[in-house]
Automatic annotation (TrEMBL):
SMART domains: PKS_ER. Coiled coil: none annotated. This is Zinc-binding dehydrogenase. GO terms for molecular function: oxidoreductase activity. It comes from the Bacteria. SUPFAM superfamilies: GroES-like (SSF50129), NAD(P)-binding Rossmann-fold domains (SSF51735). Residues 10-317 form the Enoyl reductase (ER) domain. It comes from Leptobacterium flavescens. Signal peptide: none annotated.
């Protein structure tokens, strides 16, 4: 089968299309024929190995100290189950599904084996494979953090970095929960953020969102570059500051706050949450935001575009042409 493989950390050019052995499912696994996957900022960070100091050593130990231990990236996918291990319940051959691979990675390939108890859900019939593939990472994380903030209808939320993967879901879910949303990103993403429900948008290059007179019940910082003290000042009493990328110094400072709360707990991916997001998408309550779609062969180019900072929402990797060639 074809897969995008990388044998060393580095720029997008380290990603190479290669022929690799097709996996065979074990008794507790399912074999999925991948129809679509995505390129997330996390995929790019692992490929280049650019992480904050707090995570550098543990992630090197996890992914490979001198060179990648996991050769195929890809954190989320949608496809069709081709084979089912004899100890797997709940799935059958031919089921259309979407899934998160988490630290296993491996979605940049024609086939992938995942445990039957992994974060896999049946794909809604009305949702295309490429749109289903972008749900898990951004959707599950945005849902997790917003629930942790315990939002109340009518509260005001500031979403810093609303134009990306997490951000596009955070805006829509915040609106679904009844919040007044102010979203921050670059100028070219403002219209997209308005189109998915943001009540107010701010171009970060023109004004500092935390230096305005406005205060918020929740600040959801997806970028991690804003001043901690400025964000805390912009919170109302009993306000919640969500850090999608926890920084140790900020976590420690947050422990000493009395009338405001800092949230930094990482998400645990749950099948029931994936089903919940799929239902919202099927009902039209949230939608997939796909900026561009690339064939598997152009995954390196997709990485370059994500790292350019111009991406609006999500980037899909389409494998349907490979399926059609074999039919």
């Amino acid at each position: 089968m074809k897969a995008i493989v990388f044998d060393q950390y580095g720029p997008p050019e380290v990603l190479q299309l290669k022929e690799v052995k097709k996996p065979v499912p074990k008794e507790h696994q399912v074999l999925i024929r991948v129809h679509a996957t995505t390129v997330t900022a996390g995929d790019c960070e692992i490929r280049a190995f650019k992480f904050p100091l707090l995570y550098w050593l543990p992630l090197r130990l996890m992914f490979g100290f001198f060179k990648p231990r996991i050769k195929v990236l890809g954190q989320e996918l949608a496809g069709v189950i081709e084979a089912v291990g004899n100890k797997v319940n709940g799935f059958k051959t031919g089921d259309p599904v979407f899934a998160a691979t988490t630290v296993r990675m491996g979605a940049y390939a024609e086939y992938i084996c995942l445990p039957g108890n992994a974060t896999i859900a049946l794909k809604p019939e009305e949702v295309s494979f490429d749109k289903a593939a972008i749900i898990p990472t951004g959707g599950l994380n945005a849902l997790h953090y917003l629930r942790k903030a315990d939002p109340k209808k009518g509260e005001k939320i500031l979403i810093i970095g609303g134009g990306g993967n997490f951000g596009s879901f955070a805006i829509q879910l915040a609106k679904y929960f009844g919040l007044e949303v102010t979203a921050v990103d670059s100028a070219e993403k403002l219209e997209m953020m308005r189109s998915i429900g943001a009540d107010h948008v701010i171009d970060y290059s023109r004004e500092d969102c935390t230096e305005k007179q406005e205060t918020y019940d929740i600040i959801f910082d997806l970028v991690g570059k804003s001043s901690f003290s400025a964000c805390i000042r912009a919170l109302k009493v009993k306000g919640r500051y969500i850090m999608a990328t926890p920084v140790l110094s900020k976590v420690i400072k947050g422990m000493f706050l009395k009338d405001k709360k800092v949230i930094s707990q990482l998400a645990k991916y749950k099948v029931e949450d994936l089903d919940y997001l799929a239902q919202l998408m099927e009902e039209g309550k949230i939608k997939a935001v796909i900026d561009r779609s690339y064939p598997l062969e152009q995954t390196a180019e997709a990485h370059r575009y994500v790292e350019s900072g111009y991406k609006k929402g999500n980037i899909a990797i389409d494998l349907k042409h490979l399926i059609q060639k074999k039919q």
